[in-house]
Structure formats: C-alpha cells, structure tokens
Amino acid sequence: GQSLEQPSEVTAVEGAIVQINCTYQTSGFYGLSWYQQHDGGAPTFLSYNGLDGLEETGRFSSFLSRSDSYGYLLLQELQMKDSASYFCAVLEGYNTDKLIFGTGTRLQVFP
Amino acid sequence: GAGVSQTPSNKVTEKGKYVELRCDPISGHTALYWYRQSLGQGPEFLIYFQGTGAADDSGLPNDRFFAVRPEGSVSTLKIQRTERGDSAVYLCASSRGLENTGELFFGEGSRLTVL
Fold it and tell me: Which end of chain B has fewer CB atoms < 10 Å from its terminal CB, N or C?
C-alpha cells in the first residue's frame, strides 16, 4: 500500500521555528514535494526535493533522506499568515508530475 | 486567465443526479490532474491526462466517475448517479508535463454537495 504520515497538528508562536515531518511508504519514489493550503484555498507549491539533502527557499527549507524514507519542512521566522495546512506529496515516477499526498499537518501560529 | 480555472465553484445536487465539473488549465500546460479532497484530508488522486489521453485513471473510485479532455485543454469530470459520499472539493491542477518538477498548479476547486 501507499502511506504518507505527518503529524495532524502543530502549534507555534510568531518568530519561532517549526519542523513538520513526513515519512512515506509508496510503490514508487522519485521525489518529495511540499504544499501549503489555507482554509478554503487551493494548494500552492512550496518546494521539491529530488535529491537527498536540504533545499532552501527563503524562510522555508525542505529536507529529504531517501534511505530513511523521510523528509521534513522547516519554517523559520513564523508569521501569522503561515497558519495553514501543509502537505507532503510523493512524486512516484519519471516523466510524470502525478503526486500522492499525505494527510496534512495543520499549523497554528499564535501571537 | 493566468491560473487554473474551475467551474462551478459550488454545486449542490440531489442523490442520483448527474454532475459535470469543468477545468480550464493554464495555457500551454499539457498535463492535467483531477484530485478530490474531503474535509481534513489531503488531496486524493483521481486521474491525469497527458494531452488528450488519460495517462493514469487508477484513482477513479468506480465507473460512475469519468473524465474527458477532447482537445487537450479543457477537461470535464463527470459523475453519474451521485451519492452522498461523493460530497467533497474536486480540485483540478495542471503542469507543463514530463518535467518531474513536483510542482502542480491548482485551481480553487469545485465544492460538490450531494443531498
């Protein structure tokens, strides 16, 4: 079967750092993406890891370890607007952007 | 338009009725994806098109669900004999295709409620 596990909810205060973990078990694996979704909105792309290691994009960083079937999203200098749901998603194969999404982590940022 | 457009944004129907949901992808994007999202869950893959053909329809839950993309642009998701369990937000996404970027561009979704 296919499974992507994430914590269901994380809370933090403004200015803090938070890490959202994702472990996966899928039939194929090519890379790991992260998406943000505000309530009632569309999922929006944050980052993609095709190789092991850290990818940094502004306040957000994402990490992948293929040997551990594990990745995380790191959010720094949290702002109230970062309150949203965050999804990891596995890219299963070559020559496709078909993604299998995790269950999502709801992040609440408090002042 | 600049983004993925989905219509209707909201659809309320009665059990047993037929429903069509439309998706207009970003111009030039050859790949188009349909997902379904229930409250508190992640998007669930239904089907994706590369051009006019369905490259992978393994996520369609049963034969009441069908999707077409006759000219390789706009797509329609069709649901026959709707059931209350079909209530969800149906998301459409597009990408340039065959690039393995992990990046999909999503529309705002069509919220389907089956009474």
Answer: N
Question: With an 8 Å Cβ cutoff, are B41 and A42 in contact?
Answer: no
Q: Check: CB of residue B49 under 8 Å from CB of residue B104.
A: no
| Closest residue of chain A to B33, computed from CA coordinates | A98
**Per-chain mean pLDDT for chain B:** 95
Q: A9 burial class (0-12, 13-18, 19+ CB within 10 angstroms)?
A: exposed
- Chain B CB contacts of A24 below 8 Å: none
B97 touches chain A (CB under 8 A): yes
Note if the bond before B8 is cis, omega within 30 degrees.
yes
Cβ burial, residue A42 (10 Å; 0-12/13-18/19+): buried
Task: Give dist(CA B19, CA A6) in Å, integer.
Answer: 33
Q: Which of A2, A9, A25 is nearest to A84 (CA)?
A: A9
Q: Distance between CA atoms of B19 and B25, rounded to whole angstroms?
A: 20
pLDDT digits (tens, 9 = 90+) for B59-75: 999 999 999 999 999 99
Which residue is it, tokens 């970062």?
A: A82
- Please name which of A5, A2, A11 lies closest in space to residue A71, comparing C-alpha atoms: A5
| Residue for token pair 């508190």 | B40
